[in-house]
Design goal:
The complex is a heterodimer of chains A (489) and B (96).
Chain A (H helix, E strand, L loop, with lengths): L7 H9 L5 H19 L2 E4 L3 H13 L11 E5 L26 H8 L3 E6 L33 H8 L5 E6 L5 H7 L2 E4 L19 E6 L2 H11 L17 H4 L8 E5 H5 L4 H16 L3 E5 L7 H16 L20 H12 L2 H14 L5 H21 L5 E5 L15 H6 L5 H6 L3 E8 L5 E8 L4 H15 L1 H4 L6
Parallel strand pairs in A: 2-3, 2-4, 7-8, 7-9
Antiparallel strand pairs in A: 1-3, 4-6, 5-6, 5-10, 9-11, 10-11
Helix pairs in contact in A: 2-3, 5-6, 10-17, 11-13, 11-14
Chain B lengths: L6 H10 L6 H18 L34 H5 L5 E2 L2 E2 L6
Antiparallel strand pairs in B: 1-2
């Protein structure tokens, strides 16, 4: 079999049926990493123990035990998820040498299912960014065109998967960090309902918004990955105790009678003509398969970016207070003797990069005395109104469809000096995090320059199933995910 | 809603955030955040009278586990990340 282009479920089946060993699969993808990552720079750390893990899967199979649903599947894991004994940096200098004493629940569940952590992928530092240009280990390049960004913050995971240096990948999404890079790199990527996936062991950015989720080359792989990592966890009190459906087995591409909501305000934004065309093609494909479209209105989503950035930075300023140079992370050696505040301030000033500093400042300001009511409290009230608008909209539709971003991937360096422009890029993705809804990016077409473009699906709380069905219908109707291959392959 | 984000305000916020910034960083952040906050002031126009702030987005119930001590078997793995240690303890600089 052609391991490079096989789906994750095909690889798992072949490993289970002894058509190929987990070790052979791991070596195949490791070789690709060695060859291709010099150009892409997607990995911060390669897992030197991957072969050992693969041998353990093979041994399990040899002894007749069930190796799990992801037997031998090499997964690229965003370097924001703790991996026991394997360096985890959040792409930050402040955690440059951090070796977690435990694994995140997501990684533990993947490995228990037989997946092989092939390495840790680059991100915008602590998940803060939309281009993967804010990483201590350097810029990550888009495999479809190395002059372009892969998106962010899960840009390393997207680039690694897109260049087929792994079979599947894990990202995290606080305001679009799975969906936007998935769109820019031609992948399926889902941010599940808030609470679906345990946040234990995931380095916190904004705790009421963060969710981890998979990126994959097909709807089926995406569903299989998500059902593996979902479910209640005693270490995360906000993880949902709901039953996790076997989405991968329930998948169907029948959308007959499905009501697809099209938010008027999203389509009124200034859209790149290619994004507009591809989104319309996806809508037409669904209509041709029997879905109906319903125009809906979400007037308050125009405020989603400010609400998101005020809430997210306020939470981040509190979450990142733990980096004080005492128990782990960088400690400055330049502080005045006996001055604890000076030691904290210098350790943090030396350890954090520019975007993280900017966001800690914004969040601290939004929470500070005299500004709290106008910023954080006000944003939290508007957040409720935005969520309620979505809940109301779902009374007349089953799934909402929109663009993921106003444009395809942009050029490296194009937006990095204008934080506001970079923030406004998140206009279509942040509202789902604010409302806790599941959101997904589905490959739907290409720009005139040959860059991938995804469409976004949004579902009701806990209703990932309908999104997966719509995703499969788009996948089968348009075939965009398989139509072309990136430049590096 | 906001006052101009002047240099003294940025210095004060940096102090609150325990973040040592260079003069150049302070100047840059003042300019960048001013533009950001001017844009963000749009939310002042939304009527939020009697609206309860939303702090967690779904209606799921938070669940707790028993408040019991869990022995971490590998103390060294935790201490290995410390910038400085003394035996089984985190070593911190003198502050008095």
């Amino acid at each position: 079999m052609d391991l490079t282009f096989a789906t994750s479920s095909e690889i798992a089946a072949a490993v289970k049926n002894k058509k190929v060993t987990a070790l052979e699969v791991t070596r195949h993808f490791m070789n690709r990493v060695q060859t291709l990552d010099k150009q892409i720079n997607a990995f911060v750390t390669v897992n030197e123990k991957a072969e050992e893990a693969a041998k353990a899967v093979d041994a399990k199979i040899a002894s007749g035990k069930d190796p799990g649903a992801l037997a031998g599947v090499p997964v690229a894991v965003k370097d924001l998820l703790c991996t026991k004994g394997l360096r985890t940096t959040a792409s930050s200098k402040i955690l440059g040498n951090f070796i977690p004493p435990y694994s995140s629940t997501v990684v533990s569940r993947l490995e228990a299912a037989g997946a092989i952590t092939i390495g840790k992928t680059s991100l915008d530092e602590f998940g803060m960014g939309s281009s993967n240009e804010n990483a201590a280990s350097g810029i990550v390049r888009n495999p479809w065109n190395p002059e372009y960004v892969p998106g962010g913050s899960s840009g390393g995971s997207a680039a690694a998967l897109s260049a087929r240096m792994a079979s599947a990948a894990i990202g995290t999404d606080t305001g679009g960090s799975i969906r936007q890079p998935a769109s820019f790199c031609g992948l399926f990527g889902i941010k599940p309902t808030y609470g679906r996936v345990s946040r234990f062991g995931i380095i916190a950015f904004a705790s009421s918004l963060d969710q981890a989720g998979p990126m994959a080359h097909s709807t089926g792989d995406c569903a299989l990955m998500l059902e593996t990592i979902s479910g209640s966890c005693s270490h995360d009190s906000t993880s949902a105790s709901l039953e996790v459906p076997k989405w991968s087995q329930l998948l169907k591409d029948d959308v007959k009678g499905m009501r697809i909501g099209l938010p008027r305000e999203y389509f009124a934004e200034k859209l790149d003509p290619d994004v507009d065309r591809v989104t319309k093609e996806a809508i037409e494909a669904l209509k041709a398969r029997g879905a109906t479209t319903v125009e809906i209105s979400l007037p308050l989503v125009k405020h989603a970016v400010p609400v998101y950035y005020l809430v997210a930075t306020a939470e981040a300023s509190a979450n990142l207070a733990r980096y004080d140079g005492m128990r782990f992370g960088h400690r400055s050696s330049n502080a005045a003797h006996g001055d604890l505040d000076d030691l904290y301030s210098r350790s943090r000033g030396e350890g954090f990069g520019p975007e993280v500093k900017r966001r800690i400042m914004l969040g601290t300001y939004a929470l500070s005395s005299g500004y709290y009511d106008a910023y954080y409290a006000k944003a939290s009230q508007v957040r409720r109104l935005i969520r309620d608008e979505f809940l109301k909209a779902f009374e007349s539709c089953d799934v909402i469809l929109s663009p993921v971003c106003t444009s395809p991937a942009f050029k490296i360096g194009e937006r990095i000096n204008d934080p506001l422009e970079m923030y406004l890029n998140d206009i279509f993705t942040t509202s789902t995090n604010l409302a806790g809804l599941p959101g997904m990016s589905v490959p739907a077409g290409y720009s005139s320059k040959g860059l991938p473009i995804g469409v976004q699906l949004m579902g009701r709380h806990w209703d990932e199933a309908k999104m997966f069905n719509v995703s499969l219908a788009i996948e089968n109707a348009l075939g965009a995910a398989k139509a072309r291959r990136p430049h590096v392959i | 809603m906001s006052k101009a984000l002047d240099i003294p305000t940025v210095q004060k916020v940096a102090e609150l955030a325990r973040l040592k910034l260079t003069d150049d960083e302070i100047k840059a952040i003042a300019g960048q955040l001013k533009a950001v906050l001017e844009n963000f002031e749009q939310i002042a126009a939304v009527n939020t009278k009697d609206v309860e702030p939303l702090v967690t987005p779904t209606d799921l119930r938070v669940h707790f586990r028993e408040d019991a001590v869990v022995v971490q078997p590998d103390l060294d793995a935790f201490l290995a990340n410390a910038p400085a240690r003394s035996g089984r303890l985190f070593k911190v600089p003198p502050v008095v």
